[in-house]
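Section 4.2 – Deliverable D4.2 (structural model, holo form)

The reporting period included a commitment to supply a predicted holo structure for the target in complex with nicotinamide-adenine-dinucleotide. Inputs used:
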Amino acid sequence: MQTLAGKVALITGAGRRKGLGYAIARRLAADGAAIALSDLAEPRELMESDRIGTRAELEELAAELRAGGTRAVAIPLDVTDETSVDAAFDACVRELGRLDVLVNNAGIGYLIHPLAETPKASWDAVMGVNLTGAFLCSRAAARIMIRQGQGGRIVNIASQAAKSGFPHMAAYVASKHGLVGLTRTSAIELGPHGVTVNAVCPNHVTTGLGAVQNEYFARYFGQSVEEYLSAMRRSIPMRREGLQDDTAEAVAFLCSPRAAYVTGEAMNVSGGCEMH
Ligand SMILES: NC(=O)c1ccc[n+]([C@@H]2O[C@H](COP(=O)([O-])OP(=O)(O)OC[C@H]3O[C@@H](n4cnc5c(N)ncnc54)[C@H](O)[C@@H]3O)[C@@H](O)[C@H]2O)c1
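Output (structure tokens):
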């Protein structure tokens, strides 16, 4: 049954083929949602074109969704920029008619440094996208969902790093812990409007962002990437890395009517790596 038929979902940072965002978009489309596929589109300092969803890739993926029968639009969106956020949410409502689901997926996980060597610019960039970006998009979505008066869903893609510390990733870990705080407060405020707000906390997935982490930490431990990944797999109770679809399934559940009474959660999708 298409539980999201007639609903519209906007997903941030979803313009990379191997990314979690595009897997989530495909999964919500399979449940019948129209999709506003958004991403940064233009490279900038610290966010070069091989690290982001470019305009060409974003448009290609939206066209692919349309070819599969989904109503889908590509919307360039810099989540750190208030004007860009408001324009993107306006465009979503103008082109697809409404907004029922926001997935805050945009993230930076590749600016990795020992704490004592972390440049403030890296800290600011990670916080700006992972936490401030999620706030700006949640605020824009909340305004629309409250106005529509028909409830809604917000899902924040946090991380295992929202539950535990990891070396050389102070900004990332702090931003993801903060995202769970944003989730809890948003859930309390938006509950009376029928809007649920939850976080999903995946463990490692070899996306574009994940591949940079593999290379960095393999180097750090003096291993090949394959040796590093094998050791990681042995440490995971389910004995494999996460897959994009593992996260997409959890998001689909949280967006479905089956999860109508689930809010304020930070759900691990980690093969047993995190249990709290
Ligand atoms: N891959 C993993 O191991 C893993 C694990 C846990 C959580 N996550 C989280 O999942 C989310 C998706 O990451 P991914 O692994 O699919 O990597 P990814 O690189 O495919 O996706 C991140 C996306 O964020 C976008 N982005 C960056 N800055 C932006 C901005 N200012 N405005 C809009 N979009 C911006 C990028 O263009 C990119 O498309 C991130 O929030 C990440 O922290 C990833």
